[in-house]
Amino acid sequence: MYLLGLGSVLLALKWWEIGPVATWSWWWVLSPLAGAVAWWAWADWSGYTKRKAMQRDDERKAARIQRQRESLGVKLRR
Fold first, then answer.
1. How many Å apart are CA 28 and CA 45, to the nearest integer?
2. Count H helices, E strands: the chain?
3. Cα–Cα distance between 38 and 70 in angstroms, integer?
4. Nearest Cα to 28, choosing from 40, 42, 14?
């Protein structure tokens, strides 16, 4: 996400010819966007995105179960 933000800022600076970015090559300006595409492709290919989504779901599930136990007054056995 940081690469996408950086690429967007550099693209805007190049487009409106602001600051030293106006003299940079388009390759340097667009390289963070290419990096973002490469990151997303790798994250989808490796299963990283799916693992993170499953982890968030598990955390929400555990929090929901804990809230329900507290509302019922059930204590955990240890």
1. 26
2. 3, 0
3. 45
4. 14
How many Cα atoms are found within 13 Å in the side-chain-facing hemisphere of 34?
A: 6
Tokens 């487009």, located at residue? 15
Cα gap 50→31, rounded to integer Å: 26
Token digits for 2? 């940081």
pTM: 0.72
The Cα 32–Cα 74 span in angstroms is: 51
pLDDT averaged over 10-residue windows placed end to end, the chain, 78 residues: 96 96 96 97 95 97 94 78
> Is 8 within 8 Å of 27 (Cβ atoms)?
no
C-alpha 10/C-alpha 34 separation (Å) is: 13
